[in-house]
Write a structure and sequence with these properties.
heterodimer; A: mainly beta; B: alpha+beta; 5-stranded antiparallel beta sheet
């Protein structure tokens, strides 16, 4: 089974309060993750 | 143990496996017959013209393994596999059986919520196990997007145009995965309520002062300003009302319940393609991530963020395996398989969550959607009928059944989820 997430998030360099550097990934392809672990940060 | 084996009187009972299968077959036959009888009574005719035609099965291109697989009755096999795994395992075989499964698929039995795994009557129940509280801590950063489940990140990135890249460069479109981008029924069926005047469109050259009062105007304004941050902050403009300031403060605080949903009543996706969600001024972008759950993983999924689910689309597709090998070799695999598409919004705009079924794990359960039935003969028949009716009307079949979520609060407009909330899971068969 698989879960696909598609979402809108601030682009890198977006000049928006709270967005700062945009969305950045915190994982690598093929990496094992646990539920609750961060995939990325806004 | 020797004494127990020698001295215990052994009394053999026949295990009625064949009888059980026969009984299930009889029940299924009876259900089919009753359904057909009801249909004839309701529609008043019998014969080929009243029977839903089968949806044409898509024969995917690929290597011979894929072609062979496409000839198999995968959904029937999946259902049979589910029934098989629901058979009760003899009490004394449960521990060695589950331990063998755990050894083969790498299950950490220390994390399982039940200290005595013999309470799981069958593999199906063990597969859908819960974990001990605290063994999956959530990332403390409120701006983190969390992994919804245990698994392996196969692919992630930014969506360019309408295409999502699959493994090894194969692509599929968002339209094919999520269905066409259509406005929410609640907004298309009725005249929208006037939007709070303090919500300003933020596109360049748009003053944002007028009160929106018609559907046409709403769509126009919505077409310009569709991201939650834009609506909340009014771009670079100052806040006009204490209410807007309050909403912004709430949305900025992820711990605030209902913060996202408070303003979403005024939002709609509009009739734009998905890729048009990317704002013209590059404030936001569309991203995607694919998490693969191996057979030994914890198979419940949780909310990756604070968001509001507005709609559910059920695509009654096929049930190919979603192993990394097949993901590499079968283009658009996720657009072929049965899946549940949950569409909604989060702090930064559009958000969707798509659990995709597989041959061994065909059933997708959503905790807040008791009416959803996946991997079911009934839903397949309903899909066949819908395809048939669409063909009779001369319209293309959308490929999915859609439902909208309502909430107790009018402004909520959907089912609100907080980060880490359990949403549902995958079940065997």
């Amino acid at each position: 089974s698989t879960i696909v997430l598609v979402f809108e998030a601030p682009a890198a360099g977006a000049n928006h309060p709270g967005a700062k550097g945009g969305f950045s990934w915190a994982v690598e392809k093929g990496q094992k993750v646990k539920m609750g672990q961060a995939l990325g940060y806004v | 143990l020797r004494g127990a084996l020698k001295d215990t009187k052994v009394k053999w009972y026949p295990i009625p496996v064949g009888l059980g299968i026969g009984f299930l077959g009889l029940v299924q036959f009876y259900k089919t017959q009753s359904r057909e009888k009801e249909r004839i009574e309701r529609e008043g005719f019998e014969g080929e013209e009243g029977r839903p035609k089968k949806r044409p099965r898509i024969r995917p291109e690929g290597p011979w393994q894929v072609r062979v697989m496409s000839t198999l009755p995968l959904k029937a096999m999946s259902r049979l596999w589910g029934k098989f795994n629901e058979l009760t395992i003899p009490y004394y075989l449960r521990v060695p059986g589950f331990k063998l499964y755990a050894y083969i698929f790498g299950v950490n039995l220390d994390e399982v919520s039940e200290p005595d795994i013999r309470v799981y009557p069958n593999l199906s129940a063990f597969f859908y196990r819960t974990l001990k509280p605290g063994v999956r801590p959530l990332d403390p950063n409120p701006n983190a997007l969390l992994s919804p489940a245990d698994g392996r990140v196969l692919q992630f990135g930014k969506i360019e145009g309408n295409d999502i890249e699959q493994v090894k460069g194969m692509t599929y479109t968002i339209d094919a995965l999520l269905g066409k981008n259509t406005p929410t029924p609640s907004l298309s069926d009725k005249q929208p309520e006037p939007v709070n005047q303090s919500y300003k469109p933020t596109a360049p050259g748009h003053s944002g002062e007028e009160l929106v009062s018609s559907e046409e105007e709403f769509a126009r304004v919505n077409g310009i300003s569709y991201t939650l941050p834009n609506l909340l902050s009014g771009g670079d403009e100052s806040h006009d009302s204490p209410k807007q300031q309050k909403l912004e403060d709430q949305a900025a605080d992820p711990s605030s319940p209902g913060a996202v949903s408070e303003v979403r009543a005024d939002l709609a996706l509009g009739e734009k393609p998905w890729y048009a969600l990317i704002s013209p001024d590059n404030r936001t972008a569309l991203y995607y991530a694919v998490v693969y759950l191996a057979p030994g993983d914890y198979h419940r999924f949780h909310s990756p963020a604070n968001w509001v689910v507005e709609r559910r689309r059920h695509f009654a597709g096929e049930l190919y395996s979603v192993s990394p090998y097949l993901q590499r070799t079968l283009p658009g695999l996720f657009t072929l398989n049965e899946r549940v598409v949950l569409l909604g919004r989060w702090r930064w705009g559009f958000f969707s969550f798509v659990p995709v079924g597989a041959t061994n794990v065909g059933s997708i359960a959503i905790n807040f959607d008791k009416e959803l039935r996946t991997n079911s003969l009934l839903t397949d028949t309903a899909a066949d009928r819908a395809a048939d009716e669409a063909a009779a009307r001369g319209e293309p079949y959308a490929g999915f059944a859609e439902a909208t979520y309502t909430a107790a609060s009018a402004v909520l407009g959907g089912h609100a989820l907080r980060r880490g909330d359990e949403m549902g899971g995958f079940k065997l068969g």
